[in-house]
Amino acid sequence: MVGPGWARTGSNMERLYLFDTTLRDGQQTQGVQFSTAEKQRIARALDDLGVDYIEGGWPGANPTDSDFFAAAPQTRATMTAFGMTKRVGRSAANDDVLAAVLDAGTPAVCLVGKSHEFHVVTALGVTLEENREAIAESFAHVTAKGREALFDAEHFFDGYKSNPSYAVSCLRAALEAGARWLVLCDTNGGTLPAEVHRIVTEVIAQGIPGDRLGIHCHDDTGHAVANSLAAVDAGVRQIQGTLNGLGERCGNANLTTIIPTLLLKEPYRSRYQTGVSPEGLRGLLRDSRMLDDILNRVPARQAPYVGASAFAHKAGLHASAILKNPTTYEHVDPALVGNERVIPMSNQAGQSNLRTRLAQAGIEVPPGDPRLGRILDLVKEREDQGYAYDGAQASFELLARRELGALPAFFEVLRYRVTVERRKSASQGIVTISEAVVVVKIGDQVMMSVSDSASDTKDDNGPVNALSKALAKDLGPYQAVIDDMNLVDFKVRITGDGTDAVTRVIIDSEDGQGRRWSTVGVSANIVDASFEALLDAITWKLVRDAR
Amino acid sequence: MVGPGWARTGSNMERLYLFDTTLRDGQQTQGVQFSTAEKQRIARALDDLGVDYIEGGWPGANPTDSDFFAAAPQTRATMTAFGMTKRVGRSAANDDVLAAVLDAGTPAVCLVGKSHEFHVVTALGVTLEENREAIAESFAHVTAKGREALFDAEHFFDGYKSNPSYAVSCLRAALEAGARWLVLCDTNGGTLPAEVHRIVTEVIAQGIPGDRLGIHCHDDTGHAVANSLAAVDAGVRQIQGTLNGLGERCGNANLTTIIPTLLLKEPYRSRYQTGVSPEGLRGLLRDSRMLDDILNRVPARQAPYVGASAFAHKAGLHASAILKNPTTYEHVDPALVGNERVIPMSNQAGQSNLRTRLAQAGIEVPPGDPRLGRILDLVKEREDQGYAYDGAQASFELLARRELGALPAFFEVLRYRVTVERRKSASQGIVTISEAVVVVKIGDQVMMSVSDSASDTKDDNGPVNALSKALAKDLGPYQAVIDDMNLVDFKVRITGDGTDAVTRVIIDSEDGQGRRWSTVGVSANIVDASFEALLDAITWKLVRDAR
C-alpha cells in the first residue's frame, strides 16, 4: 500500500493529459440520453475532479448538445466540441457541419476522421488522397480560427495493420496542419495490449512525437484500461476515457479505474503527473455515484477502486488478516479514492464506522455502548429485507435515533387509501384521477384529509403525490415546517426474487433552505414503500426543524 | 472479423487449460451464496462449455460445499476440491481440515498455501522453513493418494517482489512433491500486466516449466483479463477464472471474456487450443445469463462479447456503415458467442437503421417509404415527452407497427381502477390491500375482471401486479399465449423537472421460451405509466405468439 503520486512531484515527472468524453462518446451508451442540465452537472464534477479536457458533445448534431454549448459552464478544463473532418467536395469554410462545430466557440475542437483505407473506400467512397486532403484542410481551417485542434484518428490500429504508411500519413497531415493532438482510436475495441504497444512504438519511431499522441480505447475485449496504459508505456501522453466506462457498445476506457492507477500505482505514480489532486481523487467515488444516480443505474458493486465491494473482505481468513494489517489483502488504501473497507458488521471496526456516521448526523454515542451493536444488527437485518441505507442517510439517521430513544413521536398514521382510476371523461377523452385519504393522529386529535388530482391538469397526478398532499394537509401544528418541502426525485428498484421480491423506493426531498435528503422504503407494494419513504422524509424534516 | 481458432487445429498449437472457480472463489462475492442445486446446475453448464477443471468448493468448510461434493455431477471436466496446505505442528495425515478435502474423493485437489514471507510471518506466525515444509508434505500426501494436485501460491506476485528466491522455493517444494500445477495468484489484484509478464518470465527462467504454471488474477485495477493473458504470453498454460468475473472484492478474471478472446483473436487463436468447442462458445451468452438469473442480477449490458450492448451500434454514422459491412464496427461476429447485433432507436438514428431494426422484427419496408420518416418523427416526439426506446425495443416495434398499420387490435381497455388501502386488520396488525378492476373489450365482448392481494400473503401485493393480474384474467381467447409471461424487472425514473416532470417506467418481461423484452410507459402518474408498459408487454407477446 502506497501513498499517492503527488507526494513525489518532481522535475523528472512527465505530464499526462486526461481527456474526458463522458458527455460525447459516453452518450453513445445504449439507453443513455443526458439532458442539458445533467450535462452541466457532470461537466462541473469533471472539472472538480481535475481532467484536462471535457468533450461536451457534437454541436449541431442534436438540440441537447447545442443547448449545452450555448450555456456551457465555466471550467478550468478545456471545453472541447466534437465534430468530423470536412466532407470531400466542399471547402472547409463551406462545410455547414464543421461550421456548426466551430460556432460553439469552444477553445478546443476535436474532429474525427478516417485513417483506415478500408473505411475511406467503403464508408466514405472517396480516394485515399481526397481523405488525407480533407484532414489537412480541416485542421488548417480550425487552427486558423485560433482553436486548439485534436484529430481522432478513427480505426487507427486496424488501419495501421492494413496499410501502415497510409495510416501514419493521415496523422502527419493533421500534425502538419497544426493539430495539437493526434488521437489513436481503437474504434472497434478489438486490439490487444501487446499490439497497441507495438504499433504506438512504431508510430513514434516514424517521427510522430509521443507528446502529440493520444489514445482512445473501447472495452470490447475487456482491455480498454490495459490498452490505454500500454499506449502510455509506449509513449502517448493523452488518455481519452469516460466516467464509469460509459460509451458505445462495451464502453470506453474507464477513467474511474485509470485515474487511481495513474496516481497510486507504480510505475505510473513516480513517472507521471496529471491534473488530478488528492482532493479530486478522494471525490472519485462520489463522482462515479453521481453519474449512476443521474442514469438511475445500480452502481457496479465490483468496479475497481469505487465499487461498494472493491474493499469488501468476505472470506473469513481475509477478514481476520485485514484486522491485523490492511495491506495483507488491500493493494491501496480505500480512503484515497473516497471508498471504505467493508468487513463483517459485528466487529470493532464496524462500530467505529457507525459512530462516525452518527456523529455526522449530530448524534454522539460513547465507544462500546451496547446500542451500537443493536443498531448494526438492525441495519443488517433490514438490508437483508431490501433496504439500502448507503443511498438514504436520512432514513439511517431515523433508524438510529429510534433505537437510541432520540426520536419524538410527532404523529401516527392510522390508515390511508389511494385510488387511481382511468376512464373516459364527459368529453370522451381519457382521464386518470388519483385520490388519497389519510387519517392521522397528532396527540389526541384525529384528522382526516383527502386530496385528488387529475391527468387533465398540469400537476403530478400520481398516487404518491396524492398521498403526499393529503398527508401535508393533516399536519396542522407542523404545517409551517413542511410547507417548503418538495419531492425532487423518486427511484424504484425491484430487489430479491420470486416470492421474496420487494420494491425499494428512494425519495429525494429538498427544502427552501437548499437542503436535500434521501429516504428509503421497502415493501412488496410500491405504494406502501413510497409511503414509508415519504413518512421518513417528513419526519427527518421535523427532527431538524420542529420547535 | 475472423473465424474461430478451431478451424486451424494443427500440430503446432499448444494446449491451454481452463480452470473455473465460479463455485469456490466466485462464491466469495459479496451477496453471493449458492445452494447445492444451483452449484450442480452451474457445474453442468461449465462442463458443456468445455472448461478443463471445475473447482466445486471447500469440502468441510460449510454444509453446502460438503453436500455438493457428496452428490457432484458426473463431468468430463476434472472435478476439483479446494482446501489449504496442512497446518504447521501436525502431520498431513493428521490434519482434519485436509482430510475433509481428500474425503470428497475428487480426482483433483487444489490447496492454497503461502509464498509471501510477510504473510508467513504476519498471518501464519511460523518460520519460512516450516511453511515450505508444510507445502512439501501436503503435496506429497495428496499425490500419494493418487490425486492430481494443484498449488495455489497465494500472494505470489507480491511475495516475489519482496523475496523472489523464497517465493520460487515454495513453488519448487510443491513441484518436487508431485504437484501437477503451480498456480501464481495475484491475490490482492494489485499487480499490473507488465509486471506479471516480467515475473512469470523470470520464474520460468529459474527452471519452473511454463506447462506446469497457472495464473489466478483479481480485477482490483481492472486488469484481471489482461494479466491472465500477459501470463500466457510469458508461458503459463493454465488460466483460472470465473463466469461473469464473480469473486472476492472486484472479482476474478472473467472467463466469459477470456474464452472468446482465446478462440477468436490473434495471436491466441492460431497459437493455442482449449477444450471449448464452437458449440460451447455459442452457448457462452446463455451460460452468462443463467448465472445472472440464479443470482437475480441484471445482466451487465456492457460486458465484452456477451453484454446486451456489446454489439449495439447507437451512433448514426456507425449504424449506417454496419449496414454496408458489419466488419466496419465489429471486431468479431456476435453469433459466434451467441449474441446479436442491435441497432437501437434514438434521436441519432437514421432511416437505414430504422429499416434494419424493422427487418429484425420481421417487418419489411422499402427504402424511401414516407412512413419511415413519420416513424422517426414519432420516435423523436415521444422521446421529447420522456420515452426512451433504445432501452425498450418491444415498445418501439409496436409503435412502428401501429404507424405501418401492422398491429392487430387484440383488445381495448375501456377503464381501470386500482385501490391501495392500508389499515389495521381485525387482529390489530397493519395490512395493505391492493385491488384492481379492469374492463376490457375483445371484439364485441366486454369483460370486467377484479383481482386483489394483501400484504399478509407472500405475493407481490402492489398496484401494478394487481392490474397485471386483473388484465390477465380478462384476455380469455389469448390466455394461453400470456400464461407463461413474467414481469422480471421494473425500473422507474422521473424525467423532466418542475411542472413538466413525468414518470418513465420500463418493464422487462420474459416468457417460458426464454425470451426477454422491454417496454416503456410514460405519464405524470406512475400507475398509468406502468399500465402503458404492461399493455405493451402483453401486446408484444400477442404479436409474436397469437395465432
UniProtKB/TrEMBL annotation, chains A, B:
<dbReference type="GO" id="GO:0009098">
    <property type="term" value="P:L-leucine biosynthetic process"/>
</dbReference>
<dbReference type="GO" id="GO:0043714">
    <property type="term" value="F:(R)-citramalate synthase activity"/>
</dbReference>
<keyword id="KW-0100">Branched-chain amino acid biosynthesis</keyword>
<keyword id="KW-0412">Isoleucine biosynthesis</keyword>
<dbReference type="GO" id="GO:0003852">
    <property type="term" value="F:2-isopropylmalate synthase activity"/>
</dbReference>
<dbReference type="InterPro" id="IPR005675">
    <property type="entry name" value="Citramal_synthase"/>
</dbReference>
<dbReference type="InterPro" id="IPR002034">
    <property type="entry name" value="AIPM/Hcit_synth_CS"/>
</dbReference>
<feature type="domain" description="Pyruvate carboxyltransferase">
    <location>
        <begin position="16"/>
        <end position="282"/>
    </location>
</feature>
<dbReference type="Pfam" id="PF00682">
    <property type="entry name" value="HMGL-like"/>
</dbReference>
<dbReference type="InterPro" id="IPR013709">
    <property type="entry name" value="2-isopropylmalate_synth_dimer"/>
</dbReference>
<comment type="similarity">
    <text>Belongs to the alpha-IPM synthase/homocitrate synthase family.</text>
</comment>
<dbReference type="Pfam" id="PF08502">
    <property type="entry name" value="LeuA_dimer"/>
</dbReference>
<comment type="pathway">
    <text>Amino-acid biosynthesis; L-isoleucine biosynthesis; 2-oxobutanoate from pyruvate: step 1/3.</text>
</comment>
<dbReference type="InterPro" id="IPR013785">
    <property type="entry name" value="Aldolase_TIM"/>
</dbReference>
<dbReference type="InterPro" id="IPR054691">
    <property type="entry name" value="LeuA/HCS_post-cat"/>
</dbReference>
<dbReference type="InterPro" id="IPR000891">
    <property type="entry name" value="PYR_CT"/>
</dbReference>
<dbReference type="InterPro" id="IPR036230">
    <property type="entry name" value="LeuA_allosteric_dom_sf"/>
</dbReference>
<dbReference type="Pfam" id="PF22617">
    <property type="entry name" value="HCS_D2"/>
</dbReference>
<protein>
    <recommendedName>
        <fullName>Citramalate synthase</fullName>
        <ecNumber>2.3.3.21</ecNumber>
    </recommendedName>
</protein>
<keyword id="KW-0808">Transferase</keyword>
<dbReference type="GO" id="GO:0009097">
    <property type="term" value="P:isoleucine biosynthetic process"/>
</dbReference>
<keyword id="KW-0028">Amino-acid biosynthesis</keyword>
